[in-house]
Amino acid sequence: MSQVKTAAKDKVPIGQKSAFGAGHFILNILPGTLGVFIQFFLLTAWGVDPLWAGLLGGLPRIFDSITDPIMGFISDNTKSKWGRRRPYIFVGAIISGILFFLMWQIDDDASQSYIIWHVMVLQLLFLIGNTMFATPLVGLGYEMTSDYNERTRLMAFSNTMGQIAWMIVPWLYVIIPDTNTFNTQTEGVRTMALIVGAMCIVFGILPALFCKGIDSSHMENRKEINFKSLAANMKELWAGILQVSKNKPFMKLCGATFLVFNGFQLVAAFGVFIIVFYMYSGSYEMAGTWPAWFNTINAIITAFIVIPIISKMANKWGKKKAFIISTVLSIVGYILKWWGFDKDLNSQFNQTGLGKSLNSGVNSIFESLNPVLDSIGMSWFSIDPGTEVPWLIFAPIPLFAFGMGGLFTLMMSMTADVCDLDELENGMPRKEGTFGAIYWLMVKIGQSIALVLGGLILSIVGFDPNITEQSIETMNNLRIADIIVPSLTAALAVWVMWKYNLNEERAREIKAELVERRGEL
């Protein structure tokens, strides 16, 4: 366990943690909702061709990957009385919220060509606003404290609040098609876009108003940010990216993140397909809300059980060991999905005394809840009385949740340590924005690749979403892929991080050298 007590001046007040966490809630709810709208409701609500929907999801990511490092450079070198990050977070949150709402105000009878161009253009503009918000927000988090362990606590808190978004997003698949809530799916999308856009503005500006970064008033070597210096700044930007890419500990963090996140995203949709097409023989009606419950309970366990445990592990054993342990636990969880998603085992469990008692309890609860839910327009949340709960699908969650729960909690904390190392080796200005932009670039590249490879795997195993009855061979192969892919990438991530050497002792040595060199920031 760490023997160094965090100084009072290095502790982030709960109000600032909450404001930063609110920003992370928006950082998750926006891409989550955008993905659902583009990959699902563009097809089902407006009838857009799946190929075009895929392009609308993938092509803007290329543009996004260019703007992130630029925004990181700009925020690193900005001089203002409000700090380097906060003005961009404030303006970016407002722009993002407005443009997200406008992106989905599409008429029911609009032509496919109009829909494609409308969503493409508005999405590109939205991504500019989102980059203005997201990149400085990540950079701000890296500089809110200089303490090794407080960084982990801050990221654990913000990641917990970010998980709330993933408790909400799965229910969009259920709420929007519900005829008791909306007359049409298009009406549902437009209304939910308004709600999400408003949340973006309200919660997104909180970090700009209440969070404090380092005092950059005396920070040396910052570049002038204006149109006259644009060409010179592009050279500096490229030089900064090359400099960051030579930071070996940071490259290990990026590599491990790419592997864990990409492996998880590759199979993220497989669980829904397995529940619907294997466990319930292709009947969405019989599957009901269980796919949504599966993802929501995963997020709840990650947020309120797994992340606090990981934070304590990091404090006791160090961040690298906590990452390796949590990643290995996730591999065990992925393997257990073979039994958890076995429909025969679930059926057998429901015939046991424990299974019958649990089913009776759930049915009793919802028998009393359903009339209330109906009266307030939340019938989509209900469970039909008499249903048998597929209990075993939830059993692996507490283990495989350690994968994603540990990833962003620990990696973002370790990236903050890397920013100190970069200042020690390369001097001012500190480059939290650039490090944050490149780190999240790895996340976005992984997400884009996952969208492509996920579809390829579905094709290879012979899965056809247009037919109800999938062959046993197809479903078994899909279940095997659902286990093998994330387990293999997680194992590779452990190998990448095995010799990561920026531990607590070295991080505190670096901090002491920096303070001696330029004083406290």
TrEMBL record:
GO terms for biological process: carbohydrate transport. InterPro entries: MFS_2 (IPR039672), MFS_trans_sf (IPR036259). One of its GO terms (molecular function) is symporter activity. The chain crosses the membrane at residues 25-46, 52-75, 87-104, 116-142, 154-176, 188-210, 253-280, 292-310, 322-341, 391-416, 437-460, 480-498. Keywords: Membrane, Transmembrane, Transmembrane helix. GO terms for cellular component: plasma membrane. Pfam families: MFS_2. This is MFS transporter.
